[in-house]
């Protein structure tokens, strides 16, 4: 009997891994990593190298299990230390992604880009934002392709410029408040007129004045530098939202900083009124607990009340309640329990007579 170990033809080892490949000095080097850990390592979420690498070994072909030669490692990296070489490949190498995983990542990024575009734009004809499904449909109509090597935000801004060539779509303006001395306000208003900004309000005293206006997001940096460096005033972003009829707001991403969106005055008043109502209800809930319990245990369909919650629940399963529910759908008055039993018996007798009729 032969002692030779026969391996299956075409067998591939180490296939359930995420391979990271680096080409250097005309040679290919790969390392075997656990799936879905390489990106976490590069973003700084994962710190333990052993949780990322399946082995501290450098391969020339991971799928076939072919190890890299020591002379090739020294020629390419100047050392044969496997751990140091694995770290360099992990940082600079290209992640090899499977077909289904790549499709899932592209689909997720496609959705992220559409979401950013939805929050940043609106329809100038209707003054309303586009829905996420409409944005995705427009992206498919212009044959937009996701670039996995670029950020979603950068692609979204480029996509908005491309969509503006074919569809009625516009960037949402920024609402900004600038506070400066009174003698500098005319210069600011002149600059805003040159930027085609919309002045919302102007208020202040003899010493300082504040101007609230809406500005195109593309002019944010110019306006910020003008106010802070030349006027030495105060620059504040009030909202990154679209104001429509009824002071409705649509939240929007900001290209520069995360500033909380303040509540409108009307909404703030309604919140305060709601808090007062809740406090009054809490104070009076104790005095009305008995009355509330009686109302809770009353069946409006059968017009009957129960002191026990268990009886109340069992009532809803009874034939009496079910029969009154049928009568209620036919807009008939409810029956008492005795009348209901009699009506059910009469219905059974009519059914028996119908079965035996010739």
Automatic annotation (TrEMBL):
<dbReference type="InterPro" id="IPR036786">
    <property type="entry name" value="Ribosome_mat_SBDS_N_sf"/>
</dbReference>
<feature type="compositionally biased region" description="Basic and acidic residues">
    <location>
        <begin position="347"/>
        <end position="358"/>
    </location>
</feature>
<keyword id="KW-0539">Nucleus</keyword>
<dbReference type="InterPro" id="IPR037188">
    <property type="entry name" value="Sdo1/SBDS_central_sf"/>
</dbReference>
<comment type="subunit">
    <text>Associates with the 60S ribosomal subunit.</text>
</comment>
<comment type="similarity">
    <text>Belongs to the SDO1/SBDS family.</text>
</comment>
<dbReference type="InterPro" id="IPR018023">
    <property type="entry name" value="Ribosome_mat_SBDS_CS"/>
</dbReference>
<dbReference type="InterPro" id="IPR002140">
    <property type="entry name" value="Sdo1/SBDS"/>
</dbReference>
<dbReference type="GO" id="GO:0042256">
    <property type="term" value="P:cytosolic ribosome assembly"/>
</dbReference>
<dbReference type="InterPro" id="IPR046928">
    <property type="entry name" value="SDO1/SBDS_C"/>
</dbReference>
<dbReference type="InterPro" id="IPR018978">
    <property type="entry name" value="SDO1/SBDS_central"/>
</dbReference>
<dbReference type="InterPro" id="IPR036236">
    <property type="entry name" value="Znf_C2H2_sf"/>
</dbReference>
<feature type="compositionally biased region" description="Basic residues">
    <location>
        <begin position="318"/>
        <end position="330"/>
    </location>
</feature>
<keyword id="KW-0963">Cytoplasm</keyword>
<dbReference type="Pfam" id="PF20268">
    <property type="entry name" value="SBDS_C"/>
</dbReference>
<dbReference type="Pfam" id="PF01172">
    <property type="entry name" value="SBDS_N"/>
</dbReference>
<dbReference type="InterPro" id="IPR019783">
    <property type="entry name" value="SDO1/SBDS_N"/>
</dbReference>
<protein>
    <submittedName>
        <fullName>Ribosome maturation protein SBDS</fullName>
    </submittedName>
</protein>
<keyword id="KW-0690">Ribosome biogenesis</keyword>
<dbReference type="InterPro" id="IPR039100">
    <property type="entry name" value="Sdo1/SBDS-like"/>
</dbReference>
<dbReference type="GO" id="GO:0005634">
    <property type="term" value="C:nucleus"/>
</dbReference>
<dbReference type="InterPro" id="IPR013087">
    <property type="entry name" value="Znf_C2H2_type"/>
</dbReference>
<feature type="compositionally biased region" description="Acidic residues">
    <location>
        <begin position="336"/>
        <end position="346"/>
    </location>
</feature>
<dbReference type="GO" id="GO:0005737">
    <property type="term" value="C:cytoplasm"/>
</dbReference>
<feature type="domain" description="C2H2-type">
    <location>
        <begin position="299"/>
        <end position="321"/>
    </location>
</feature>
<dbReference type="Pfam" id="PF09377">
    <property type="entry name" value="SBDS_domain_II"/>
</dbReference>
<feature type="region of interest" description="Disordered">
    <location>
        <begin position="318"/>
        <end position="358"/>
    </location>
</feature>
